[in-house]
Write a structure and sequence with these properties.
3 helices; alpha+beta; 160 residues; 6-stranded antiparallel sheet; single chain; 11 strands
Length: 160
């Protein structure tokens, strides 16, 4: 068995079919080198490589986000391109350790199936740059019943 076949087979068996969306699908497309210049190492890992920060500390690679405890009125934007993606009006405490919202700003996020970690989930990303924001689950509050469980490092916050 060649190394290429081994790696391909291993990734397929692990369910690694949810690779980052093709850059051509988005308005803002940059190379990895350009994204690395624009983003901190932790934000690059979350937004471009679909990493997840640690719950309750919202930290990764020595960087942390204060957005889990953010309670002011305002708008959450994609940390990659500043597109408004969530309103504070839809934020709630889900008890999961990540900033959670029951709905996104209409038309500003996209989703795709994520079959990594041996489970089927729905990944949510910025519709403009494709930045990975987190995942959507069907255990949220009314009126949507959805829980958009997001990485704080994927977001910026602007107070109203």
């Amino acid at each position: 068995m060649t190394r290429r076949i081994f790696i391909t087979t291993t990734l397929a068996a692990a369910g690694a079919t949810a690779l980052p969306a093709l850059a051509a699908e988005f308005e803002i497309t940059l190379s990895d080198a350009e994204w690395k210049k624009r983003l901190s190492p932790a934000r690059f890992a979350v937004l471009r490589q679909e990493a997840t920060e640690k719950p309750f500390s919202n930290s990764l690679k020595g960087e942390s986000s204060p957005l889990l405890k953010e309670a002011r009125s305002g708008t959450y934007t994609c940390a990659g391109c500043d597109l408004p993606v969530y309103s504070s009006e839809t934020k709630y405490d889900s008890g999961t350790g990540w900033p959670s919202f029951y709905d996104a700003i209409k038309g500003n996020v996209g989703t795709k199936e994520d079959n990594t970690l041996f489970s089927k989930r729905t990944e949510v990303h910025c519709r403009r740059c494709g930045g990975h924001l987190g995942h959507v689950f069907n255990d949220g509050p009314k009126p949507t019943g959805k829980r958009h469980c997001l990485n704080g490092l994927a977001l910026n916050f602007t107070a109203a």
